[in-house]
Amino acid sequence: MSTSPERLGDSPETASGLRIPGRYRHDWALFADWCIATDHRPIPASPEALALFLHEHPAAPATQRRCVSAINTVHTHHGHPAPGRSETVRRRLDTARATRLDRLAALLHRRAAQLPTTGWPSGVFGRRDALLLTLAATGMPFARLARLRRGDLTVDAGTFVATTTDGERFCLPPESAAAESPAVVVYRRWAEVQAFLDAYPNTDLLAQHLTDPIEVEQGVLTDRQARQPLLSPIDRWGHLPLMPQPMTAQSLAAIVRDHLSGRAPARTPLPLPLRKQSDRDEGPTVRIESEIDLDPHYYERGIAARRHAQNDLEGLTDLFDDIEDRTDQLLDELTSLLDNLGP
């Protein structure tokens, strides 16, 4: 069979205008015809559509892998992500791997359910790590997990859905038709922390909230919030970065490994900042008790202080030059001494 490119003469709704290598034409035509019949786009195809196609066209594993390879090649040759390089399709092609991942997912969900959701700083670590373990249970690679943004997670009819930057969807459905997925609760707990920090960007107030939680409204994310990293680093005191930043794939993998092996660190409770009871009753607001009058000569005094500092520091350059010269001289003397000692 010729391997020269041939134009596939399908309808404009499918693959008109594509140049398909001859050895891939049969598999691609089969897939494109199925897409027309089932109202799916053949290119770019979604991983879910390809997985459904493989389910409805059972064949030997080698045959299905050849078909996926053909579909991947057509996509990459035309500048689209390969739908076969997704966890959804990998599970369809390798049932043994899918079984192992299912066992691991059950363990990850159990670990996530055991993590604390209140207390300081255990609550903030527990909520973040529980969501991390829940996402890892989907089989999502850590590199993609690290790139998730707040707007990439949604709840659709009780199903928890995470959509990666390349469009792959990872879903955790509810255990029964009348309930929500347990992953939804885990997700909303961490989203509550982020919503609280959106409204009150103060670690002390967050500590109070996680010790004595109050209801926090989780509205629709703004465009800026939706683009922020989903999972952020937390220091030992419970502080999140002032400017949202993502965690690395290596850090995420290390946290998951520590939880699975039982080596995750226990968080020592930290004392809470003192706060008036009236403030606690009125919610996490910061009030100014009295108006502050600034000194009318505030700016003049500041300018004078800067000018005075500049005059005092003018001689530092000469001082540093002198220190550098003396350092070079000492280094030369040390080198000469070592040369005289000989081997």
In short:
This protein has 343 residues and is mostly helical. It has helices spanning 22-38, 47-56, 61-77, 87-93, 95-114, 122-136, 142-146, 182-199, 203-211, 223-226, 249-261, 277-281, 298-313, 316-341, and strands at residues 5-7, 19-21, 153-156, 159-163, 169-172. The protein has 14 helices and 5 strands.
How are the elements arranged and paired?
Layout: E1 5-7, E2 19-21, H1 22-38, H2 47-56, H3 61-77, H4 87-93, H5 95-114, H6 122-136, H7 142-146, E3 153-156, E4 159-163, E5 169-172, H8 182-199, H9 203-211, H10 223-226, H11 249-261, H12 277-281, H13 298-313, H14 316-341
Antiparallel strand pairs: 1-2, 3-4, 4-5
Helix pairs in contact: 1-3, 2-4, 4-5, 5-6, 6-8
Describe the protein in words:
- It is built from 14 helices and five strands.
- The protein is mainly alpha-helical and 343 residues long.
- The chain folds into two domains: 19-93, DNA polymerase, domain 1 (Orthogonal Bundle), CATH 1.10.150.130; 100-267, hpI Integrase, Chain A, CATH 1.10.443.
- The strands form two sheets. A three-stranded antiparallel β-sheet has the order 3-4-5, covered by helices on one side. A two-stranded antiparallel sheet has the order 1-2.
- Strand 4 and strand 5 (169-172) form a beta hairpin.
- The chain is extended, with a radius of gyration of 30 Å.
- Residues 1-15 and 275-290 have low confidence and may be disordered.
